[in-house]
Write a structure and sequence with these properties.
The strands form three sheets. Strands 1, 2, 3, 5, 8 and 11 form a six-stranded mixed beta sheet that branches. A three-stranded antiparallel beta sheet has the order 4-10-9, with no helix packed on it. The mean pLDDT is 94. It is globular, with a radius of gyration of 18 Å. The chain has one domain. It is of the alpha+beta class. Helix 1 crosses helix 2. The protein contains five helices and eleven strands.
Length: 269
């Protein structure tokens, strides 16, 4: 792909942007008792923020495409809050995951060539990780799988600060932690409780959670990978990801963005 193939989202309305983020945070808070902690993070709020960042990337991606008249199927791929995610959406009869990485850089955007030099990464820590499931179809009606690689600015030059923070009471944190310890981040076959019960108890222990929004980063949509590309991916240990903008602490399978086909080639943008 080329620099001209990069797509920048343009969700600039503050209410829309913050609404997508709030929806992602609500999802993260509600689902964390049933979300397996693959990163070994002890800080509960950090876990919630990480889940919300991933969900927000999905929300922003879908909202942008919808604003351009491009329809993707998220209804088929959606799962209840107490079950493990499958895929993010269906398009062109393929099951897709969005692989978004948050970058650290001073300006709002990198230049095009810098995005092309980045790696498209798929987690590959062990046999249970996403790379091993690259060819697994969850839905009989689809013909295969694919990945869309996107990037967003994390929060300026401070790689320890995310573009948002969450505030909730100590009692609310204890309530979430108790549920997390009860269900141990495990997938449930049936719902252990209703959403309405969760939010009623959560709000009885403090005010609605607050959001500290430090910036409004937009998403860069770059390349795609499908079954025809997977054999070109190579294993990268964290120390082998040589980028001033992108950091990883896990092993991944990767390929340079410049070597991929563009998402733009699939849609009319």
């Amino acid at each position: 792909m080329h620099e001209s193939d990069l797509i920048t989202t343009d969700i600039t309305d503050a209410d829309t942007y913050e609404g997508l983020l709030r929806e992602a945070i609500e999802y993260a808070i509600l689902s964390i008792p049933f979300t397996f902690d693959r990163m070994g993070i002890r800080d509960l709020k950090k876990k919630i923020i990480n889940i919300a960042k991933g969900k927000f990337a999905e929300n922003l991606f879908a909202s942008f495409l919808n604003s351009k008249g491009i329809s993707i199927d998220q209804k088929t791929t959606s799962t209840p809050f107490f079950q493990t995610d499958k895929r993010d959406f269906i398009l062109d009869n393929l099951e897709w995951d969005i692989k978004n990485n948050y970058l650290t850089h001073a300006n709002a955007y990198l230049n095009g060539s810098q995005y092309l030099d980045l790696l498209a990464l798929i987690p590959n820590r062990a046999s249970w990780d996403q790379w091993s499931k690259r060819n697994h179809k969850y839905f009989n009606e689809t013909s295969g799988t694919g990945y869309v690689f996107t990037f967003m600015r994390k929060s300026g030059v401070d790689e320890h600060r995310d573009f948002f923070d969450i505030n909730f009471s100590f009692a609310q944190e204890l309530f979430i932690r108790d549920l997390y310890e009860t269900y141990e981040g495990k997938h449930q076959i049936t719902s252990p409780y209703e959403k309405s019960w969760f939010w009623e108890v959560f709000h009885s222990k403090g005010n609605p959670f607050g959001i500290v929004l430090r910036s409004h980063p937009q998403m860069i949509i770059s390349g795609i990978a499908t079954a025809r590309d997977y054999d070109r991916f190579e294993n990268f240990k964290p120390s082998q990801v040589q980028s001033p903008y992108l950091r990883t602490i896990i092993s991944n399978m990767g390929l340079h963005i410049s070597e991929l086909r563009s998402f733009k080639s699939m849609v009319n943008l």
